[in-house]
Write a structure and sequence with these properties.
The complex is a heterodimer. Chain A is α+β, with helices and mostly antiparallel strands. Chain A contains two helices and four strands. The chains are: A alpha+beta, B alpha+beta. At the A-B interface, strand 2, helix 1, strand 3 and strand 4 of A face helix 1, strand 1 and strand 5 of B.
């Protein structure tokens, strides 16, 4: 499966745009039970969605991930351990199916 | 008891929720568009000249997490409004399209909105936004794919 921030030089058929957004919180500043990282979202949400759409890949991908400084995370580990830190990861791109000879 | 409730709340909040937004197929480089505008997140399949740039921000309202009115649907903003505005500029297509559904509703948020609506008797509303940008082009050979 091809997932790239670039385009595609070989012939392809567009299956439409796809956006996957995961929202959750970090507990105690550092704990990430929701999987709010690019790797987790791509592995657990994007790749299954690409497969479910019957696509061969996702091109022109753009992505954003909420990132906190370590000092901020530490602050919310102590003393503000009771306040969860919100987080969000968004991955979007165009679903494509390869056409013609590889 | 309070510590257990706090832990349970954190676990519930921490179990992130994923929202998936899909749109209709855009233009494929080797296929004819049937006279419609060529729309792609990629580049142009043929030589072109740039006419300008477009940004469209669709606004809509979501009621109780389920019903939505307005222009914040990805397809409507991208294949409707963006294409219409590009055609007004005299364009044959829009390339390097970048789209963003700014605040899609996750299943947990949808359930929460419905529950709040039922319990309070007032319909919970949420403003929705979709942004799309692109480069309006005109094919040098004067014909659409």
């Amino acid at each position: 499966m091809l997932i790239t921030t670039g385009g595609l030089d070989t012939p392809y058929q567009s299956l439409g745009p796809l956006q996957v957004t995961r929202r959750g919180v970090f507990a105690f500043g550092f704990l990430d039970p929701a999987g709010l990282t690019l790797e987790a979202v791509v592995d657990e949400a994007v790749i299954p969605e690409v497969r479910a759409a019957g696509a061969d890949g996702l091109i022109n991908v753009r992505f954003e991930e909420t990132q906190y400084l370590t000092v901020t995370r530490a602050f919310f580990a102590f003393p503000f351990f009771f306040i969860p830190l919100p987080g969000e990861v968004t991955v979007r791109g165009e679903l494509v199916r390869f056409s013609g000879a590889p | 008891m309070t510590a257990r409730r706090l832990l349970a709340a954190l676990l519930i909040l921490g179990s992130g929720c994923t929202a998936v937004v899909r749109g209709s197929p855009l233009s494929s480089p080797a296929e004819a568009t049937g006279g419609r505008l060529y729309l792609s997140t990629g580049s142009s399949p043929r030589p072109y000249r740039t006419l300008g740039f477009i940004q469209v921000r669709g606004y809509g309202v979501e009621f109780a997490g389920v019903a939505q009115v307005g222009d914040a649907a990805l397809d409507h903003t991208l294949q409707g409004v963006l294409a219409t505005e590009a055609a007004k500029l005299g364009g044959d297509g829009v390339i390097h399209i970048v789209f963003l559904d700014e605040n899609p509703t996750t299943p947990a948020e949808r359930a929460s909105a419905m529950a709040n609506t039922v319990s309070s008797g007032q319909v919970e509303q949420k403003a929705r936004y979709v942004s799309v940008t692109g480069e309006v082009i005109q094919f040098l050979d004067g014909r659409r794919p």
